Amino acid sequence: MNIGKALKLCRTQKGLTKTALAKRTNLSISYLSLLEQGKRDPNFTTVSDICKALDIPVSIFVFLASDINELDGVSKELTKMLSHTALKLIEEDISDTELPA
């Protein structure tokens, strides 16, 4: 699992700086930097707090953090489609988005 990759992706998709996210989460900028660099592993509460600050469901965040070997059994096409949909949800207000049937 690559929490740092998902964090940076979600943060930048939301147009937030590390400073802005730090204020929303009450985490230090340096800690967020370490997370994004993969030099620290957050606990679940921290991941949950970050997701809340980013207005992203934890499940989407965890999916985006998944390494390819963790998605064993999921086709590359489905993984690509899910990733694209997840990024679209991040860009938009999730509560106003209709999910495809």
Number of strands: 0
Helix content: 55-70%
Measure the end-to-end span: 28 Å
The biggest sheet amounts to: none
The residue ranges in which pLDDT falls below 50 over 5 or more consecutive positions are: 94-101
**How many H/I helices?**
6
Q: Whole-number radius of gyration? A: 14 Å
Strand content: under 5%
Helices and strands, in N-to-C order?
A: HHHHHH
Overall 3D form:
globular
Average predicted confidence as pLDDT: 83
Given helix and strand content, the structural type is mainly alpha
Question: Please, could you describe this protein's structure?
Answer:
- This protein is mainly alpha-helical and about 100 residues long.
- It has helices at about 5-15, 20-25, 30-35, 45-55, 60-65, 75-90.
- The longest helix is centred in the last third of the chain and has 16 residues, at about 75-90.
- It is globular and about 40 Å long.
- The N and C termini lie far apart (about 30 Å).
- Mean pLDDT is about 85; it is low at about 95-100.
SSE layout:
Blueprint: H1 3-13, H2 18-25, H3 29-36, H4 44-54, H5 58-65, H6 76-91
Keywords:
single chain, 101 residues, mainly alpha, 6 helices, 61% helix, globular, disordered C terminus
Summarize, please.
By secondary structure, the protein is mainly alpha-helical. It contains 6 helices and no strands. It starts with a helix and ends in a 10-residue tail after the last helix.
